[in-house]
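Thread title: Can someone regenerate the structure for this chain?

I was given the following input by a collaborator and told the matching structure tokens would be attached. They weren't. Posting the sequence so someone can regenerate them.
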Amino acid sequence: MTASKVLVVYYSRTGATRRLAEALAKALQADIEPIIDRKNRSGIFGYLRSVAESLQKRGAAVEPMKTDPRSYDLVVIGTPVWAWSVSSPVRSYLAANRGHLPDVAFFCTMGSRGGERAFEEMQAIAGKAPRAGCAVTAREAASEAYRTHIAQFMEQLKTLTS
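Best answer:
Regenerated them for you:
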């Protein structure tokens, strides 16, 4: 994996997805870039807005990205799971880059479930199947338990590149 040029792109409302993204970027020796949402999603109203957008399958207004995914061999894309769906900022990123993404892998953080459904949505929006997936609960992301998931994710990626 180290010979490949890898980019980790993520959105994080609470910091859980950011923590996982940073650990993955370090393990993959990858560049990293957050998706910056133009809306304030803090507090209860931000949470409710986020859930409503996910239920409606809407995207969000996001800042332009600094990196071009076409410059990479693999883009690892991370999202929090909102209402068993991909977050609206990641939905926007995937839609904007459909047709421009090289190989992809997905990761997510979630309350307890919804990762598989979010990955299915991400695949449909991106127009390509992920090489690997990593779903972590918020509880695991807040502890060291997420490291086991990262190791499994890395093994999936290694198996696919062999």
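Residues 146-161 form the longest helix (16 residues).
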